[in-house]
Amino acid sequence: MKPASLSRCLLCDDASPSGLLCAPCTADLPTNPHACWQCALPLPQTGLCPDCQQHPPAFSRALAAFEYRAPLTALIARWKHQADQRPLHLMARALLDQLAIHYQQDDWPQALIPVPIHSRRLIGRGFHQTHQLARYIGKALGIPIDMTLLSKRVSGHAQQGLDRKERLRNLRGTFACDGNPTGLHLSLVDDVLTTGATANTLAELLRQRGAARVDVWVLARTP
Predict the structure, then answer these.
(1) What integer pLDDT is reported at residue 3 of this predicted model?
(2) Which residues are in the Double zinc ribbon domain (predicted)?
């Protein structure tokens, strides 16, 4: 009888019974247990960060399962740039666990909106990563996905490496709200929340068109 192939950890390549991560690499994942309850910024203890106190964002709350640092960065890169779906399943399950805790005494959104990407980026990457994440989360929670409310009209320059002011300037006129979100409680779904500029721009668009509330769900938040 041919021996069964040995599953390997996605990060260190050691043996892994789950075929995802070994126990030490799982323990090394940078979770985000204490964070700003509005923008999910990692904090020493849960509360409201100084920036949200002085400049509240247009979204009501953001939740992130992890901090965006090693070794999680390698998992996200493997999913986004190598189209490996296994990291997505692992990270999305962790996000679902956080959502179940935080929405115990809160209303669930009525629809999930993947942060839109431009068609040029979609062609280059070959798949819409935020749609994949929203589909996974939406199926688990029984919440529909709305791909019609928001669109990205202008490709724009990459946001990576820009500070908050530069990101906001880069986003001007980039997105459009094409539908009617009046009275709806919605959640934007993205992979990583960095400065919050994109999420805030999209939440402002939705609120201006009548959305009652906008939340933000992400896999990871930058420290």
Answers:
(1) 41
(2) 8-53
Same domain, yes or no: 99 and 130: yes
The answer for residues whose C-beta is within 8 angstroms of residue 44's C-beta and 6 or more apart is 34
Rounded to two decimals, what is the model's pTM? 0.87
- Domain match, 14 and 122 both: no
**In sequence order, what are the residues at sequence separation of 6 or more whose Cβ sits closer than 8 angstroms to the Cβ of residue 213?**
60, 109, 185, 186
Secondary structure, 3-state, 92-136: HHHHHHHHHHHCCCCCCCCEEEECCCCHHHHHHHCCCHHHHHHHH
Within 10 Å of residue 137's Cβ, how many Cβ atoms?
21
Please state the domain count of the chain: 2
Radius of gyration of the chain (CA): 18
- Determine whether 138 is exposed, middle or buried from the number of CB atoms within 10 Å of its CB (0-12, 13-18, 19+): buried
Q: For residue 110, what are the domain limits?
A: 31-221
DSSP-derived 3-state class of residue 15: strand
**Which one, of 194, 190, 197, lies nearest residue 219 by Cα?**
190
Same structural domain for residues 166 and 200? yes
The CATH number of the domain holding residue 195 is 3.40.50
pLDDT digits (tens, 9 = 90+) for 151-191: 887 655 454 555 555 555 555 668 888 889 999 999 999 99
Tell me if residue 177 falls in helix, strand or coil: strand
- 196 and 86, same structural domain? yes
Q: Do 23 and 88 belong together in one domain?
A: no
